[in-house]
Amino acid sequence: MVEPLLRAENLTKRFGGLVAVKDVSFTIAEGDLFAVVGPNGAGKTTLFNLINGVLLPDEGRIFFNGKDITRLPVYRRAPLGIGRTFQIPRPFGVASVRENVAIGALFGRAAEKVSVVEALAIADEYIDRVGLQAHGDKPSIALTPVERKLMEIARALAMKPRLLLLDEAMAGMNPKDIDELVNFLKRIKDEGVAIIALVEHIMRAVAGLAERVMVMHQGSVLTDTTTEAALTHPKVVEVYLGKAPG
What we know:
CATH class of the largest domain: Alpha Beta
Strand order of the largest sheet: 6-7-8-3-9-10
Shape: globular
Number of helices: 9
Structural class: alpha/beta
Distance between the termini: 42 Å
CATH superfamily of the largest domain: P-loop containing nucleotide triphosphate hydrolases
Largest sheet: 6 strands, mixed
Helix content: 25-40%
Strand content: 15-25%
CATH architecture of the largest domain: 3-Layer(aba) Sandwich
């Protein structure tokens, strides 16, 4: 049996009396396109924070490439191959776009082998791939909100991740931008990178990108199934629309 790239077992996270994530289990294989969806407060961002180490679970375990990483801090997970973007981009504002993306290479899987010059070359590659080649020398604070999201994706990819966590990367984008990003991410997937996309309400992105969808509601897994099955599941429709179809 092939070991999954990521395996989450019975994850639970509490904040006082609030159970933000409750007994969540799932697996991700290399090259998977996986979406986590759910309404506000479903526990999606908390789950992401557990996977990349911003938070530690109160119960449960996380395995990455067969290694138990449950208690590892963020800085030790990134070199293993876990890349992350954030819902609100977090650039180094006074640094250029090129320098921001190069930081990903310097702290990613090849962190101990990459020189600054090599990191800048890697940055140029991914800046070009996300379509920001005309902005490489600009300070990141000069970018539009959508351009900052693309820069964050480039920075995460410069880490050469095996698993890429996208936290609402398509929020605020118009349909054309969403379609272009979906097509780009599919090409990244073909290079062996597994992608977990956290999506709130953009069903266009879910339908276009994900092969599998996990729907969360009130901290628990409502369903984990194919995209088509998830988007027509009566309970999923009820969670989003407030009533079952029919």
